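Continuing the batch. This is chain 6 of the set; chains 1 through 5 are on the previous pages. Same settings as before, nothing changed between runs. Recording input and output for traceability.
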Amino acid sequence: MEDNFSTEVYEEIRKLIHNPDTKWMRYVNRVLDETDPHVAKMMALNLGYQVAFLGTKTIRKNRELHGCHIPWIILMDLAGTWDFHCTGYREAEYGNEGNLTCGEMDSVISQGKELGIYFYMMTGGEPLVRKSDILELCKKHNDCVFHCFTDGTLVDQQLCDAMKKVGNLSLSIRLKESEEAGDFRRGSGVYEKAIHAMDLLHENGLIFGNSICCTRKNPEAVTSDEFFDLLIEHGSRFAGYFYLSSEGMKAAPERMPTREQREYIYHRLREVRAKEGGREIFTIDFQNDREFAGGCIAGDRTYCHMNINGDMEPCTFFHYSGANIRDNTLLDGLKQLFNKNMPGVCPMPENPER
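Output for chain 6:
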């Protein structure tokens, strides 16, 4: 990794590994003990070597060679329609027609690997409507990591068996703070199905986490000790927190968390993932963790988004595009994406007037 990390970072890792009784070594050992051996091997090779080592070095070289940002992750929207009615999601702005074909996704991934990109996330809509295509891509590109954001309703034993076989697909289960809130947002029985999906994935030794949407109504509920205990009990390894970003002609900014609530979440998630205390689950704050990523990661600096129409966008919440993958190579599209985020923060809640 050369100078990718400081000497102090390596020393901290050595200290951590040599003390098996610390919080995070208990976490690591529990994950290894409970994960299917083939899945653990593939994630170590693909996420550890291909993405973090080989991919990072290749991306850095190509950034200098081509004079543009090369992202670490490409996020693709797969399904323009949901498998049930859902209210308030930003994907509705795209309409419900069109979709990226399996061939188009295959082409994007093939081009991406040449640039050093080995990490592909998929959302929608409900990406597991296309699970047969996703699994085919996992097989063909078995040196890549694939990750889907899903409601969990299409997770069954057949999918778990296929995931164990390929070894390079993981999931984030969307989960609300309660059964009442989950079923109100997504339909009757969806919360229970999400919990069942988590149990099934856990029983099969698969790696998964949760995707949590913070609104004005739920910051305390989705960051409570009880909520984290629920996630851990059902086998979740990580929880990614997103803030509701209301945009479009039917925007409802009154549903977005307030400044005070976002500040509360900032401190609470750091408390949970601290070296001591908190809970043994890794929390990710996709807005507030920008301080560890050198500012906003969008605009192809760290990731690039492709919507269902093939438009390349700087962010999944920022509906602006200067290129389409059907008319441009991946590299040409990346050269057209704007990537100078002046304040280094998300402009949606922080600088909406700009």
